[in-house]
Amino acid sequence: MKSKRKTLTFENVTFTTINTLILILLSVLMIYPLLNTLAISLNDGLDAVKGGIYIWPRMFSLKNYEIVLKMHTIYNAFFVSVAKMLVVTFTNIIFTSLLSYSLSRREYIFRKPITILIILTMYFDAGLIPNYLLIKDLNLINTFQAYWVPSIISAFNFIVIRTYMKTIPESFIESAKLDGAGEFCIWWRIVMPLCKPTLAVIALFVAVGSWNSWLDTLLYASRAQNLSTLQYELQKLLASAMNSTVAKGGMAGAQAIAGTGGQVTTPLALRAAITMVAAVPILCVYPFLQRYFVVGLTIGGVKE
Amino acid sequence: MKLKKILAGTMAVCMLIAMSACSNSPASVPSSSSEDSGSNATSSTESSNKVVLSPDKPVTLTAWITTQETAPAPDNKITKLIKDELGVTIEYQIVTPDNVDQAIGVMIAGGDYPDLVGTTDLKLRLLEAGALRKLDDYLATGNYPKLSEYVEPYVKRMSYIGTAVEKGLYIFPNYNRFFGEIQGGTHWGTGFWIQKRVLVDAGYPDLSNMTLEKYFGLIENFMAKNPKTEGQPTIGFEVLAATGHEWGLTNPPQFLAGYPNNGGVIVDDKNVATIFADKQIAKDYFQVLNKEYAKGVIDSESFTQTFDQYLAKLATGRVLGMHDQRWDFGTANDALVAAGKPELTWVACMPTYEGVQPWYMDRDVMNINQGFGVSVTCKQPEVALAFLDTMLTDKWQKIISWGIEGEDYMVDKDGKFYRTQQQRDNYNNVTWRASNRLMALRDVLPKHNGSFDDGNAFSPDDQPREFFDSLLKYDQDFLKSYNKQTWRQFMNQPKDNPAYYPCWNIALSDEVNQINQQLTDANVQYLPKIIMGSTDSFEKNWTEYVDAIHKVNVKAYEDAINAGIQERVKNWQ
Amino acid sequence: MAEIAVKKNNDLDVTIVKKKNKLGAKIIAQRGLILMSVPILLYKILFAYVPIYGWLIAFQNYKPQIRNIFKQQWVGLDNFKKLFTGLMGDRFIRDIINTLGQSLLTLILSTVFAIVLSLMLNEVKNTAFKRVVQNITYMPHFLSWIIVTGLVSVALSLPSSGGFINSTLMALHLIKEPILFLSKPDYFWGIVAGSNLWKELGWNTILYVAAMTAIDPTLYEAAEIDGAGRYSKIWNVTLPGIRPTIVILLVMSTGYILQTGFELPYFLGNGVVVERAETIDVFVMRYGYQLGNYNLAVVAGIFKTAVGLVVVGLSNFVSGRLGQETLV
């Protein structure tokens, strides 16, 4: 109540006004690309090629969406994408938080070496082929497991969660120990509930990352049509609409391309529709998780 | 106690989700052994075991296809037809050209190939990695008459002549092995394009003996009279230089000098190739562009725009001319036609230097680096080949290319194929095609390009009647004024291709490919400066450019191309 | 207060442990923690470190068709020499500089603006408005680079091609003639950083905004009692509150200093600006993957990793010396 009085000062009013105005301006600037993409996606393809469409379609058409949504593979791919997202998010949260918990305990004797080894993985990438060979040797190629098994721990997420866990007062853990609780019990019953906000952020990061990835489908599951993901299918659809990229060899494929000319839409407009179809489901995740953010979260909260 | 329960619970949930998710992925095992059709004793290439495809002996073939086309829908009617009549099921692995570099890398490293592999790159990485079977002995059995017929006259040309694996036939080229008469009305290749309204405005000027001077003269005159097009500034000439389309900038000098498209080199009478980027023929061309730029004819955004922006400008109809290949700007052309503005579309001119015959149009070149091969891990090569052989029969070729008679095309009383407007519209619909055509398969299968024995063209696009039916009134009148029937007639009569032709599909080593890339990079970096620079500094800029070219190991590049030419001259005759 | 309690407990813990002072005893006592972390570590080692043997191909004339990596032809440091000397070397070094320039500028701009935006959002008292703004600002993150580069190149083009930046500048009489932004090499790093900023700004604020909500409200009250104004509170309470987050994120990102995304310079770059546009990743794309030259990609990858490790190690050390957060 004390602060009520203060908010009425001149300084505060100006501050709030300017702040609000800047945020509105920023929002306009940020929402523009999406509106523009939406407008193009709802526009006749051939007309859209001319450019000059901003936030309103010039020649309204649902053709682009019809093409995307009538694609026979898209529904299965959508469910695979959702399943993949859920499994990846769930396993990530469980295993990364388990690791984070153990390494947040200062007395743990292997804390330092393990932490270093985990963090360094952020900067090492073996490359395409060795990674593929490993997945192949583990017999994961063309299985659903190839999507989540290799990636249940992320070093970045580990750092975020661990640093948050460090801020949990030691006394909580000590008293639980006195009550005879084991480490797993403390982790699950005491630490995890306290970490909800962090876990929500991490869940968002992991879910979005999983949703947007398609390279894993290309490399690890492209022979299994029923494991294809939404992003990968949309990628392929886009390629089928692009009739101009076969320029590698100069003239190669001139005839090949000519044979499929006269599309009912254009890559530009189809790309826009594909973007919308790919983005809208995942855009819904954030508002859902947002309510967890109101309670605290810090990374690097308490010094050692 | 409790914690164990909790842990067990989480693990169980985790596994459950994982398992339920993978349980809807049955039997996607890549090894396609399927029910063995009995007759195909594995690995043997003896002549006795001729495979007859029949619905009684169902087989499954896996196929890797690099294409921009999408996979057929599960209810695809041709898939069903192939299954019903031949007992063949195809499992597709479709990779788009954008992703092929990564996908090929891991496939080779893994060493596990599908039965049929559609290679599509100039480097023939799969072939050189030993992924494909040599096919000569299989064909020698005489079990595959259609494939033999397809291959025979050109077997040397189609065969691999490098050193990485044994020389021989490994793939069946997918395009431009012609049978019978080559038909078709559209010139899909290269040219200096000029808007039809410019020619109409100039009173249908004679287009033979075209020079750069005449070409730009027409454009400048029209531009002076029409500084605006639909309220926007008219653009005289657009230079195409977007990533992946750099040839729009670099190719013209060879055409101006009367050479056919050999990529970055010109080849003299003694079959010796040299790069032309640093030669007088290039200098003259870029000097003209430099002058035109100074006059404001050339769009100043030419070198900074993306390919999308280039197409957008073309599609607004305010671009009077450009050097490009017809297939490359197809979308812009379609957009203008759809908007009912054929006068804003283009027709090809062939400017040359003084006293030189144009050679813009060449004889369509066989796609020797693309097509199906049979993999070394294929357990049933005879079945795979029998399938390809069957697909080459006229019956299946027509199904693949035209569709089903009565549904997808009609036959007139002379036995000529044609389509109704509805059938054309169907074909242009991606969704329809997924259920009614095998576009991805068609892309890589060997094809009966040219004409069938009954006189019909292989593809609807080449059928004369189809071409004329699709012409707009404006275009019909335009053609009439020039006393021509097709757009192809605006081009030169293609001479016989030289024995080695074309140089751009000579397979190069990594080192040489790097040099090639360096040359492209130098062009893209320096040529815009030359064109956009002041006319006074042209000489200085040109020297700078030539110096940059000479820093690259041009000799090694020319040597490699010449070695390739000699090899072809020796082997292809 | 909580901090003091933690420290006390910690000291207590240490003394207890010291008394036992036997590794074996400790291991038994901490078997739960070991059970939690060691299997996961082994798992991570399998997926992150074991494939590193693939780096051997940097020292080979690698042919993928010879499956066994140990049977390849060894060429020592030849691949590295090729990359760092001659014409290729000049170019690669130029590309290193471009990569550094683009990523440093991006890092600085995104960090500063993300913090500023987070602070601004934190000052919004209307929850609904705050949520809406947050939801909108993070949307561009979901557009692919190809879409974003398309929009950027249109925005930067001439007014007749829809270039609204030129139109705006001309309407404000700041310039007389439109500027061809994408033909000016000196602007290119800025364009890359600006595009990155536009796309990722909202996304980058998520961690900061979340960190701010965790600041103890009593600290603000105490500051108010001391007569602190709004700016003073931001400066003395909010910023210190998220300082650990800022520091940790900065230290982590320094390790990625050579890992710029390749899309922006690849799609926006052109021959005219290539001197400032081409980055290591673009180079690797053109000369590595697209030519089937896998060694080159690995050699460049090793170089990037080595530099990244040195830089992240250094910045972690410096951060520790300055009394700030460290990664370990």
From TrEMBL, chain A:
GO CC, one annotated term: plasma membrane
Main location: membrane
Coiled coil segments of this chain: none
Start and end residues of each ABC transmembrane type-1 domain: 78-289
Alphabetical keyword list: Cell membrane, Membrane, Transmembrane, Transmembrane helix, Transport
Transmembrane segment boundaries: 12-35, 74-101, 113-135, 147-165, 186-211, 268-289
Single Gene Ontology BP annotation: transmembrane transport
Membrane topology summary: Multi-pass membrane protein
Keyword Nucleotidyltransferase assigned: no
Location in or out of the cell: Cell membrane
Keyword Cell membrane: yes
PANTHER family documented for this protein: ABC TRANSPORTER PERMEASE PROTEIN MG189-RELATED-RELATED (PTHR43744), POLYGALACTURONAN_RHAMNOGALACTURONAN TRANSPORT SYSTEM PERMEASE PROTEIN YTCP (PTHR43744:SF9)
Protein's recorded name: Putative aldouronate transport system permease protein
From TrEMBL, chain B:
PANTHER family: ARABINOSE-BINDING PROTEIN-RELATED (PTHR43649), DIACETYLCHITOBIOSE BINDING PROTEIN DASA (PTHR43649:SF12)
Low complexity bias (residue ranges): 27-49
Disordered: annotated span: 27-52
Record keywords, A-Z: Signal
Signal peptide: 1-20
Organism of provenance: Acetanaerobacterium elongatum
Superkingdom field: Bacteria
Record-given protein name: Putative aldouronate transport system substrate-binding protein
UniProtKB/TrEMBL annotation, chain C:
Taxonomic classification: Bacteria, Bacillati, Bacillota, Clostridia, Eubacteriales
UniProt entry tagged with the keyword Cell division: no
InterPro entries for this protein: MetI-like, MetI-like_sf, UgpAE/MalFG_permease
Protein name: Carbohydrate ABC transporter membrane protein 1, CUT1 family
Superkingdom of this protein's organism: Bacteria
Family membership: Belongs to the binding-protein-dependent transport system permease family.
Biological processes, Gene Ontology terms: transmembrane transport
Organism of provenance: Acetanaerobacterium elongatum
Database matches in Pfam families: BPD_transp_1
Domain ABC transmembrane type-1, chain residue ranges per copy: 96-315
A GO cellular-component term linked to this record: plasma membrane
Transmembrane stretches, start-end: 40-59, 104-122, 142-165, 240-258, 294-318
